[in-house]
Design brief:
The chain is mostly helical. The protein contains 20 helices and no strands. Helix 4 runs parallel beside helix 12, helix 5 crosses helix 6 and helix 7 packs parallel to helix 18. The two termini are about 40 Å apart.
Length: about 425
């Protein structure tokens, strides 16, 4: 009976239009006050204790890093480099936008920021090159979703903290799947361009590729600092976030010179507001997860699922369907903190690797960035391009279907996710 009461309160608040963070906190608080011996003081303590985790410090630091990089003109340089590499192919300009999104996702760690940074530059340029408005918007809105899978991924940090898994291993596990999905999107773009009659163009000379690379190298190095620092044992993920934030500031202000002194307070305020929103959601979601755990709800659900005698392949189908549906209505961080404690014990009993599970959940979350009513990428792309939300959804459909195919492959070929972390940390 308790699960129905808890989730009934939660859904009633959501239907009433209460923001997700407050809905999580209020439903958990009401349940604890009226159905357990918990005091209001204990709830307040739990709210603050839930944020007292070293790994969570990485979130505001990575957000700050992304803000400095976005403000500092890094996107322009990455686009120039991507265009020099693949711009000669049929569909080369939209493919270079996708390639730039993959790279910028690793720099910013944010899907909406990737769509905004790359889309504001490339959507118009792709149209000027003879492609339809829908083609330009669809390719970028979909590839921007890779920002929550490519490290440094805030969503992977949230998952790791929620189920107590290595953030470093999760970061390493996200690299190959993100690159694979980026390749899938580029293949779809290439095929669509060929079918649309777009021709191959002369390849950029090596001198131009080299010049574009040298111009972008300072922005690209932040990827090496984060991944290489963690891989080499120089930093923890949180320490890597701090180093990357300082490096991003130095690059944007003193090397590229695009960040003006008058822009710094606004950039920091923007990062602080974004980080505060994320941390507030996490704090309330952790209180909600605490109620689930103390009431033994995850264990009861795990025992029920195991009693159905499902194999892990059937279970993964159900998980993907559930996450895709829930991703239509909830923000990724809060959704993970609600569902991960429920899914995790079942997955462990069925022999599913916890790192692989984290990647599967995150890919589902990135697909959720493309589905209304809370698909942030859709709103960002709609605002940039001037298309209506419905037109943006239709424009992204071919790439959306490609991501679903990629999700199926990543789900049932675990080595795509586990190859790099097993090589680094041992299997």
């Amino acid at each position: 009976m308790e699960p129905f009461i808890l989730f009934g309160i939660l859904f009633a608040l959501l239907l009433a239009g209460v923001p997700i963070a407050l809905s999580l906190g209020l439903s958990a608080s009401v349940f604890m006050v009226f159905f357990t011996a918990t005091t209001p003081m204990t709830i307040a303590q739990k709210l603050f204790i839930s944020l007292n985790k070293f790994a969570l410090m990485a979130i505001p630091l990575f957000v700050l890093m992304g803000s400095f990089m976005a403000q500092g003109g890094t996107a322009h340089r990455i686009i120039r480099f991507a265009r020099a590499l693949v711009g000669h192919l049929p569909g080369g300009l939209p493919m270079s936008a996708i390639f730039a999104c993959v790279i910028f996702a690793a720099v910013s760690g944010s899907s909406p920021a990737t769509v905004a940074a790359i889309g504001s530059i490339m959507i118009g340029a792709i149209q000027d090159d003879g492609y339809s408005e829908r083609f330009s918007v669809g390719s970028i809105v979909s590839s921007g979703s890779l920002g929550i899978l490519m490290p440094p991924s805030i969503i992977l940090i949230v998952y790791g903290v929620t189920v107590d898994q290595s953030i470093g291993a999760l970061f390493m596990a996200g690299i190959v799947p993100a690159a694979f999905l980026g390749l899938v999107l580029m293949v779809v773009t290439y095929v669509a361009a060929v079918m649309g009659g777009h021709k191959r163009r002369p390849m950029a000379p090596l001198s131009e590729i080299w010049a574009a690379f040298k111009d972008a190298i300072w922005g690209l190095l932040v990827i090496i600092i984060v991944i290489g620092g963690i891989y080499g044992g120089l930093f923890t993920p949180t320490e890597a976030a701090a180093v990357a934030a300082v490096y991003a500031f130095i690059t944007a202000k003193f090397i590229y010179g695009d960040l003006k002194w008058k822009d710094i307070p606004r950039t920091i305020n923007t990062a602080a507001a974004t980080a505060a929103m994320i941390m507030f959601i996490i704090a309330n979601a952790m209180v909600f997860a605490h109620v689930l755990t103390t009431q033994q709800m995850p264990q009861d659900l795990a025992n029920f699922i195991v009693a159905l005698d499902l194999n892990k392949y059937t279970f993964l189908i159900l998980i993907n369907l559930m996450l895709l549906l829930a991703g239509n209505f909830m923000e990724p961080s809060s959704l993970i903190m609600i569902l991960a404690p429920l899914i995790f014990p079942i997955a462990m009993k069925l022999g599913i690797d916890p790192i692989h599970l984290g990647v599967i959940i995150t890919v589902n979350m990135e697909i959720g960035m493309l589905t209304p009513p809370v698909g942030l990428n859709l709103f960002v792309a709609s605002g940039i391009s001037g298309l209506t939300l419905q037109q943006t959804i239709k424009a992204s459909l071919p790439w959306f279907l490609a991501l679903l195919c990629g999700l199926a492959i990543i789900t049932y070929v675990p080595q795509i996710s586990l190859f790099v972390p097993e090589m680094i940390y041992g299997g």
